[in-house]
Specification:
The protein is α+β, with helices and mostly antiparallel strands. The protein contains twelve helices and eleven strands. The protein folds into three domains: 100 residues; 78 residues, no CATH class; 118 residues, no CATH class. Strand 1 and strand 2 form a beta hairpin. It starts with a helix and ends in a 17-residue tail after the last helix.
């Protein structure tokens, strides 16, 4: 049974304050505690405006924060003892343990699916649709908000949660690789060669470094992002600045890798975004045979919808149709 399915029957999975108090009691208890001890200790208590703690102990056990032996005695994971001096420190430790467990859960990737994740270029934050969390997993959503991993989008009209920038590194290192691996889908993964994926990622990283160098003196350099790592529907790979004077992110870069004669696949979505963004949309054509040359610069095409689609110098070939009965 997966973690989320195992815990979906509970109302409350716990808060940092609850676990800090519980674990301190377990750590200093003169005798081993059982579930009854925990229920008795928190009976008729309100912690973080919560009076129901039905799933807290089960959650702690699932992520390895505690173990419960065959006699029902609870033991605290020794690695957590140093964290008990500070509630925030403990919360961070538990969140890491929770996500480490969740990332092995298939249901987790139904929630944190590539189709639910996007990038807000105004606030420069990763976001996830509120509707991503089915009602049965509302307790997990609440856990992530109580622990500060998620918070509501600052614009109340946007129905999304923001992934706390404090945990951006955790998200990028622990969760994004698997989310990104799944973004192509099973059918596409079977069609595409692994080498082609590698070429694409290498080209995106090259273009990202190139943009950093091109705009080295820009005060907002840290805002340049490989958006495709989070948002599969953006229609471009990198968001950047047009020049040093730009005060907002206004260059949208789609990266294409090639070897020999410039050639690439251009999706309908990418073409639509290029048509709408016009001069602020760029194709960066990167010759992977020259990427190791320190003096090499990509071919940059602004407003490619006009300059390529309507240009006879580029050969266009239809490789598929969307078919629907009238």
């Amino acid at each position: 049974m997966t973690m989320l399915k195992e815990l979906d029957k509970y109302e409350n999975l716990g808060t940092p304050k609850f676990f800090c108090e519980l674990f301190n009691q377990l750590n200093h208890a003169q005798e081993a505690w059982t579930r009854d001890h925990v229920k008795g200790y928190f009976y008729n208590r309100i912690v973080d405006n919560q009076s129901v703690f039905d799933g807290c102990l089960s959650f702690a056990e699932v992520i390895g924060a505690v173990t419960i032996n065959e006699n029902g005695f609870i033991s605290l994971n020794p690695s957590l003892a140093p964290s008990l001096v500070n509630e925030k420190y403990l919360a961070n430790k538990l969140l890491n343990m929770a996500l480490e467990t969740a990332k092995r859960d298939e249901i987790f990737y139904e929630i944190f699916s590539p189709k639910n994740i996007s990038y807000d270029i105004v606030y420069k934050l990763i976001q996830i649709d509120r509707a991503s969390f089915p009602f049965r997993f509302a307790n997990f959503r609440k856990l992530l908000t109580d622990f500060g991993f998620l918070y509501l989008h600052p614009d109340k009209n946007i129905k999304k949660y923001i992934i706390n920038s404090k945990y951006r590194k955790l998200f990028d290192q622990e969760l994004r690789p698997e989310i990104q691996r799944r973004k192509l889908g099973i059918e596409e993964l079977e069609k595409l060669l692994e080498q082609r994926q590698i070429y694409g990622e290498e080209a995106e990283n090259f273009a990202f470094v190139y943009e950093k160098k091109r705009l080295a003196a820009h005060p907002g350099l840290g805002n340049i992002e490989i958006v495709s790592a989070y948002d599969i529907g953006a229609g471009y790979d990198i968001v950047s600045y047009a020049d040093i004077q730009s005060t907002e992110l206004n260059r949208f870069v789609e990266v294409k890798s090639f070897s020999g004669v410039p050639s690439f696949h251009w999706s309908r979505n990418e073409m639509d975004v290029a048509r709408l963004k016009r001069d602020s949309y760029f194709l960066y054509l990167i010759d992977r045979d020259k990427m190791t040359d320190s003096e090499y610069s990509p071919t940059m095409i602004s407003n490619p919808y006009e300059l390529i689609i309507n240009n006879e110098e580029w050969l266009k070939r239809v490789e598929g149709y969307f078919i629907m009965k009238k």
